[in-house]
Design a protein that fits this description.
The complex is a heterodimer of chains A (333) and B (261). Chain A has 13 helices and no strands. Chain A is mostly helical. Chain A has one domain: ABC transporter involved in vitamin B12 uptake, BtuC. The model of chain A has no long low-confidence stretch (mean pLDDT 89). Chain B is globular. Chain B has one domain: 3-Layer(aba) Sandwich (Rossmann fold). A six-stranded mixed sheet of chain B has the order 6-7-8-3-9-10, sandwiched between helices. In chain B, strands 2-1-4-5 form a four-stranded antiparallel sheet, with helices on one face. The chains are: A mainly alpha (333), B alpha/beta (261).
């Protein structure tokens, strides 16, 4: 018992340190390599002693980008966790449920109409919610199996993808079209502190809500009667989970496009190691998700001379993993 | 504690009546068996008792208070539900599954800690399944899972336990283990209400019985309610009640003989 407790503490400490350590190491890596000593000096406010190029690179480019990767990675992972519990389905994620496509469409329309950051986020959130509601309405009913909701999600997703194509079609080919296209491919490159101030709070609030509810989320995959007879308000619990997960997805999409697959990959890696209890899966997904996206983004920006869109990298890892999970069969219910 | 169901009836939207005129009362330590053919509304009645479904008319009262008007949290601190085992196989460990039984007690923002884990060990020990604590629920046998679900219901120390076919799909030994558990709990003052497809189990264990069937639902004291005639009427089978003496105990069994056409 004593030993078990110390393992728990060790795990908690590791999960807190890991994202921070990864972030600091990522600050050093890139086309311009910056020494650990310089990074330390810059972070502790003694940047005057470092070359201006290094200082500018760390503060204006790498730091906001890594902060964004940290929040988006943590957020999308925990959103995936939430959707998987909600639908008692290991394949449910913002991508497979059509939420990401819906949110992208909302954001694309707002960009087309010339709006700036906050309306883009709101529009993205509204269409994200609309997509998940449509998916649920289409996917429930008779053939209730695990695949129904996913098929329905893929259909709703492709519907919104078509609408996004339409937005691109009517967009101004000189300026708007490239902007929308590159943004949708997923990139964290255009981040600055101003966009972080608008985009990070919804993600943070969503993560906090899910973190607070983490133990109660264990009820989500159970039958409706079981949830009710545990004295829990079913509707309130489901609504809180959907809203939090969708807010995270919408804010992420608005800032860096469709960074796919993280909501599938990370929670499953965590579950394979730590079991299904949301009380441990939620915090671990937050931490590992942050680490994962920082690493993938660092690879994306430093592997080749021109940057690789991040969704290409996540899909190359994600698609085979999805097939593996699908063949293994779900273990939620 | 007194649980009462008065003049209860139920029908799904614009459909035939599922059951009507159901009346019974349950006191601490009672074991109530609900019998009836497939589709007679046994599970529906349980859901109405739990306040999950709304009775069309009549009422279900816990100490005089309508269950539909009680706060869910208050109701489910006193009443626990054990669903059919085949419907629940989330991949949690036995420990995590049993802890879920404390959801009505803990505030929304709280997670269970050391004290709650101690209660898990206690309730598992009481049911002689403490060795299962670290096993996953989708890796244990049906009989073990049923006992785990009973543990989940018992951890909150309820006054009423409501079980949906707790001994279905189990072998003889596991059936007896579940039934013995009900008897043991009733001696501790917990009232048990359970659905069953086995009239013999009702006769052997329950002191009150309800036979649901279209048009002639009967409720009352077990011995006088479960008779060969009542079984024939409700199930449309010719049946007989046998007695077997084992030492000092008389064990009654209901034996179906043939289909009445």
């Amino acid at each position: 018992m004593v030993e078990k407790k110390s393992i728990k503490i060790l795990r908690t400490v590791l999960l807190i340190i890991l994202p921070i350590a990864t972030a600091i190491i990522a600050l050093m890596i890139g086309r311009i390599a910056i020494s650990p000593k310089d990074v330390f000096l810059i972070l502790t406010g003694q940047g005057d002693m470092v070359e201006t190029v290094s200082r500018m690179t760390v503060i204006s480019f790498r730091l906001p980008r890594i902060i964004l990767a940290l929040f988006v990675g943590a957020g999308l992972s925990v959103a995936g966790c939430a959707f998987q519990g909600l639908f008692a389905n290991p394949l449910a994620t913002p991508d497979t449920l059509g939420v990401a496509s819906g949110a992208s469409f909302g954001a694309a329309v707002a960009i087309l109409l010339g709006f700036n950051a906050i309306p883009v986020q709101i529009s993205s959130f509204i269409f994200g919610i609309l997509a998940v509601v449509l998916t649920v309405l289409c996917g429930r009913g008779k053939g209730k199996g695990m695949t129904m909701i996913i098929l329905s999600g893929i259909m709703i997703g492709s519907l919104f993808s078509a609408l996004i194509s339409f937005v691109k079609y009517v967009a101004d080919a000189e300026s708007q079209l490239p902007a929308i296209t590159y943004w949708l491919m997923g990139s964290l490159a255009s981040t600055d502190y101003k966009s972080l101030i608008v985009g990070v709070p919804p993600i943070l609030i969503g993560i906090l809500i899910l973190f607070i509810l983490r133990w109660r989320m264990n009820l989500l995959p159970l039958t409706e009667d079981e949830i009710k007879s545990s004295g829990t308000n079913v509707l309130a619990l489901r609504a809180a989970t959907v809203l939090a997960a969708t807010a995270i997805t919408a804010a992420s999409v608005s800032m860096c496009g469709q960074v796919g697959w993280i909501g599938l990959l990370v929670p499953h890696m965590v579950r394979m190691r730590l079991g299904s209890n949301f009380k441990t899966v939620v915090p671990a997904s937050i931490s590992i998700g942050a680490v994962f996206l920082i690493i993938v983004d660092t690879v994306a920006r430093s592997l080749t001379a021109s940057e690789i869109p991040i969704s290409i990298l996540t899909a190359i890892i994600g698609a085979p993993f999805f097939i593996y999970l699908m063949r293994r069969g779900g273990s939620f219910r | 504690m007194r649980f009462e169901v008065k003049n209860a009836s139920f029908s799904y939207k614009n459909d035939r009546k599922i059951f009507e005129d159901v009346n019974f009362s349950v006191d601490s330590g009672d074991i109530v068996a609900i019998l009836g053919p497939n589709g007679a509304g046994k599970t529906t009645l349980l859901k109405c008792i739990l306040g999950i479904l709304k009775l069309e008319s009549g009422e279900a009262l816990l100490d005089g208070k309508d269950v539909r008007r009680m706060q869910e949290r208050e109701l489910f601190k006193r009443v626990s539900y054990v669903p059919q085992a085949k419907n629940t196989t989330a991949a949690y460990t036995v420990r995590d599954t049993v802890l879920i039984g404390l959801a009505a007690e803990l505030s929304v923002f709280k997670s269970p800690g050391e004290a709650e884990e101690e209660r898990v060990r206690k309730v598992l020990k009481e049911l002689n399944i403490e060795h299962l604590i670290d096993k996953k629920c989708n890796k244990i046998s049906g009989g073990e899972l049923q006992m785990v679900l009973i543990a989940r219901a018992l951890i909150s120390e309820p006054e009423v336990l409501i079980l949906d076919e707790p001994e279905s799909n189990l072998d003889f030994r596991n059936q007896l283990i579940v039934l013995d558990t009900l008897t043991k709990l009733s001696k501790r003052g917990i009232a048990c209400i359970f659905n069953t497809h086995y009239p013999s189990h009702a006769l052997q264990r329950a002191n009150k019985a309800i036979i649901l069937s279209e048009g002639h639902t009967v409720c009352g004291d077990c011995e006088s309610t479960i008779t060969a005639e009542a079984i024939e009427k409700a199930f449309n089978v010719k049946a007989t009640i046998n007695e077997y003496s084992d030492g000092g105990n008389t064990i009654k069994t209901v034996v179906p003989i043939s289909v009445i056409r």
